[in-house]
Amino acid sequence: MRLILLGPPGAGKGTQAQRLVEKHGIPQLSTGDMLRRAVAEGTDVGKRAKAVMEAGDLVSDEIVNQIVSDRIDAPDCADGFILDGYPRTLFQADALERMLSDKGLELDAVIELKVDDEVLVDRIAGRYTCANCGAGYHDENLKPAVEGVCDKCGATEFKRRADDRPETVKARLWAYYKDTAPLIGYYHAKGKLSGVDGMAEIDTVTGEIEAILDRL
Ligand code: ADP
Ligand code: ZN
Hints:
This protein is an alpha/beta fold. Helices cover 49% and strands 15% of the residues.
């Protein structure tokens, strides 16, 4: 199963992707995470990406396309994958299309998470992840069962993304509407698009996504 989760920052893509990973056993390919890892490791790609990302801008299409293409070739992607945060531009969507057809693969569905702008800033400002396993949490919406302890792995260190500040969120939303929202039309025209109400509770959203996947 090859899926794309589409929606503005804070829509819940990462949250839903984690659940799909657990249920379906296919990996989540988050270009944001892959890039942040490259930055942390100080690789060549990471050095080029660092300044751009901290300003809330988009890393060049060439860099991202290459990272994704390499990742899709890994053995754990043989049964499928969930793309979260990629493609972000029409150029990337075309590159993905070509990349997949070169590999003899096809996309099964694109799921759009629809959320109002006012909610996004609160979601982003309140989110954090386990420093050890990457499980996602939120100050109000999704707390660990025991305060300060990760549900998944028991770690007690958490981190917040450097670009999850209200000033940067505006720039990221602007970039989404300008560069990424056109993909909604692109995938609709290809008959691949399904929309879900991302304003609903996390479990409800998961249920809607599973219903879409059942119909595939
Ligand atoms: P994205 O990956 O689309 O940027 P995230 O999955 O990181 O978004 O979600 C942003 C924040 O909002 C997280 O802290 C998450 O726990 C919370 N969140 C996600 N989905 C919902 C939802 N349906 N209702 C309330 N909060 C949510
Ligand atoms: Zn953890």
